[in-house]
Each structure stands twice: as structure tokens, then as C-alpha cells.
Specification:
Helix content is 15%, strand content 32%. It has 2 helices and 16 strands. A hairpin with a 2-residue loop joins strand 3 and strand 4.
Length: 212
């Protein structure tokens, strides 16, 4: 899956409030173009819009720009997986039935008695992180939570709660329409609560580019 990023090479400094309202945005008389309002659009909706027309101007939140766009992976066909699994199972059963049983000798294992020593937690092992994301009004549903530099992400539920697996030292990115992007580094605590704050908006002709 390609990693995509939204950016505005040349931001527009026209006043949004002075533009003429049109469907899905406003008309800018200076550049004589419609400016679409994407401040309430999801990453997937933005990608779909730019696939249809990659030369449109838009109104965006800073939290939507200059970061990896988060969009769900396409699920593989469950039906094909079931058929494939069935074929493998049938083949293995047939081969096993044709093989003659083998006599194996087993040795009695030595039993070691003593105190149990607990190893320190592996730094590379994924751990379950959870928490509640809120704003000034309370719990905030639909917040994107993603591990920085990966496609591992999730969204908060109706109660603002999220759950995600990550490693110690990883950075969680919290983003939501109209809110500032917040980053939190995973350390000892497995509970990370976040309070979102309002963010300003940006205008201009945005482009979507691939991240290598």
C-alpha cells in the first residue's frame, strides 16, 4: 500500500469569509476558482476527491497537511481464503492417510526445580496502549490514532476510547478535523489520555504525493 501525503506548495492568503458561497465550498474571485471545504472530510474522502480532479483548490486544517494520510486497508476475500484453506486441509489429510505410521522413541525430559525468574519486558515487543481522547466538551469520537511512520492506526469510539498495539519508544499521532495534531511518545504507562485543541485553517491548491 502506498504512503500518501497532502501538502500545499503555495498557500492562498485570500479571506475565506469574503468569498461567495457555492456548493461544497466557496468561489474565489481572485483566482476565479471554486475552493472546496475539506475541513470536515476524512483522509479517504480527500484521496477519492483528488483521484477525480487533482488540480482543485481547498480549505484544509493544518492537521490534515504534511503527514501520512490514513485510510483503511482493503480486506481480502474471506470466500477465497476459505476455499484455499479447504484445499490445503484436504491435501494434507490425503497425504497423511497414505503415509504409514512411524514409531518414534521419546525420552523422558529432565525436570528442573527452582525459583522462577522473570525476564524484563522486551523493548521490541508490542504492548496494548489505550486511553480516552477528549476536547473541551468531553470525549471525542472519530479521532485518528496512528503509530508514526507506519500504517498501524485506529479511531476512537463514541466514548472517545481507543486501543492500539505499539512498541515502547513509538510515537502516537492523534488527529481530528478542526483540531491540532498531537504526538505522544510511548514510555512506561500503557494508558495515554489526550485532550485536543482547536486549530486554524489553510487555503490553497493542495497536492497529494507519495512518500517513499
Amino acid at each position: 500500500m502506498r504512503k500518501l501525503q497532502l501538502t500545499i506548495p503555495e498557500p492562498c492568503h485570500e479571506d475565506w469569509n469574503k468569498m461567495t458561497p457555492v456548493q461544497k465550498g466557496r468561489f474565489c474571485s481572485s483566482c476565479e476558482k471554486n475552493v472546496f471545504d475539506f475541513t470536515r472530510s476524512t483522509d479517504l474522502q480527500i484521496i477519492e476527491m483528488y483521484n477525480k480532479n487533482n488540480s482543485i483548490c481547498g480549505r484544509f486544517l493544518p492537521s490534515q497537511l504534511d503527514r501520512e494520510l490514513f485510510y483503511p486497508k482493503k480486506k481480502k476475500s474471506v470466500w477465497l481464503a476459505a476455499v484455499f484453506f479447504g484445499m490445503i486441509t484436504f491435501f494434507n489429510t490425503k497425504v497423511s492417510a497414505q503415509e504409514k505410521p512411524k514409531t518414534e522413541q521419546t525420552e523422558t525430559p529432565h525436570i528442573i526445580v527452582g525459583k522462577v525468574a522473570y525476564n524484563l519486558e522486551n523493548q521490541d515487543e508490542e504492548i496494548a496502549i489505550s486511553g480516552i481522547v477528549s476536547d473541551a466538551s468531553g470525549p471525542l469520537p472519530g479521532v485518528n490514532v496512528i503509530v508514526k511512520g507506519t500504517t498501524n492506526g485506529t479511531q476512537t469510539g463514541f466514548d472517545g476510547l481507543y486501543n492500539i498495539k505499539a512498541k515502547k519508544g513509538d510515537i502516537l499521532i492523534f488527529s481530528f478535523m478542526g483540531m491540532k495534531v498531537i504526538e505522544r511518545t510511548i514510555s512506561i504507562s500503557r494508558i495515554i489520555n489526550v485532550k485536543m485543541e482547536d486549530s486554524p485553517v489553510m487555503l490553497g491548491g493542495a497536492v497529494i504525493k507519495s512518500l517513499r
